[in-house]
Design brief:
mainly alpha, 0% strand, 6 helices
Length: 128
C-alpha cells in the first residue's frame, strides 16, 4: 500500500489529487508508527523508515523530474512522513530527513539542491 502511495505521489500532476493522496499516505504511516509504539519489534512498523530511505535515494540519484512547481508530490511525500510521527515520541524520521536534506544542499548537484530546498520549504511551512 505504501509503495502505491509513493508511486502515485511521484507521478500525479493534479494538485488536488496530490493533497488527498498525501493525507492518506500520512494516515497510513501514522498507523504504522502507532504499531511501532506498542510493538517495537514489529517489522511492518519499520515501513515508514523504508519509505523515507526510498525517497532519499531517489533524491540522491536524481531520479525525479517534475513539471509542477516546488517538487509537487515529492515534497508532499516527505511532509506526510514528518507529520505522521507521533507527538509523544522522538521525531526520528524528521531528524534523519532534515540531516540528509541539509547535507544534500551543501554537497550535491543543483538538481538535488533545488528539490532539497523545496522539500524543506514545505516542511517549514507545515510547521507554522
Amino acid at each position: 500500500i505504501g509503495s502505491w502511495f509513493l508511486s502515485a505521489l511521484l507521478s500525479l500532476k493534479h494538485i488536488g489529487a496530490i493533497e488527498h493522496t498525501t493525507n492518506s499516505f500520512q494516515d497510513y504511516c501514522n498507523r504504522l508508527l502507532r504499531i511501532k509504539a506498542t510493538n517495537p519489534d514489529s517489522k511492518i512498523a519499520e515501513l515508514p523508515r523504508l519509505f523515507l530511505d526510498q525517497l532519499l535515494e531517489k533524491l540522491y540519484k536524481r531520479e525525479q523530474n517534475f513539471i509542477l512547481r516546488r517538487s509537487a508530490g515529492f515534497a508532499s511525500s516527505f511532509a506526510a512522513l514528518a507529520r505522521s510521527e507521533l507527538a509523544d515520541c522522538k521525531p526520528e524520521l524528521l531528524i534523519t530527513m532534515m540531516s540528509k536534506l541539509l547535507s544534500m544542499v551543501k554537497r550535491e548537484s543543483w538538481h538535488s539542491k533545488v528539490h532539497s530546498l523545496n522539500i524543506m520549504t514545505q516542511l517549514f511551512g507545515d510547521a507554522s
